[in-house]
Automatic annotation (TrEMBL):
The keyword Isomerase applies. This is Peptidyl-prolyl cis-trans isomerase. It comes from the Bacteria. Keywords: Isomerase, Rotamase.
Amino acid sequence: MLDLVRFNDNSGVATGRCCFVWVAVCLAITLVGCNVQTRSSSPGPIDADAPEEFSTTDSGLQYRILRKGNGNTPGPTSRVVVDYVGTMDNGIEFDSSYRRSDPTSFRLTDVVRGWTEGLQLVSEGGMIELKIPAELGYGNSPPPGSGIPIGATLNFIVELHEIK
């Protein structure tokens, strides 16, 4: 009987050590997880003084700055990193980097004219809402399989994260 008691006592020590190791591992995972940046599945906050009305450029692009940035503004050939959500006038979403959890990087020469023009109006860290008429968007040639009809106005909310 004494041998069993001793065995149980040692087992308790081993169990205690095992429990301590598991707690330490869980704590380490939690602390490492705190340093991981999670991406939002929707656009960030809007400035309290963001305009309700859209401004219109000479080309017909409508825009409003939802959040002022604090960095540089891109030029017409800049490479940028953005998050965005695109919808049609009926509210149907046709694309979103937020949904994919994947910011997009591209040159402003490689996108529709409405993006090239519109993103030059916002600074790094800022957010802009764009209403892109068909002639500055896809016009009569929307991407196959996109669900975007010919002649559609495209609506975007774009966060400019970085100019490379």
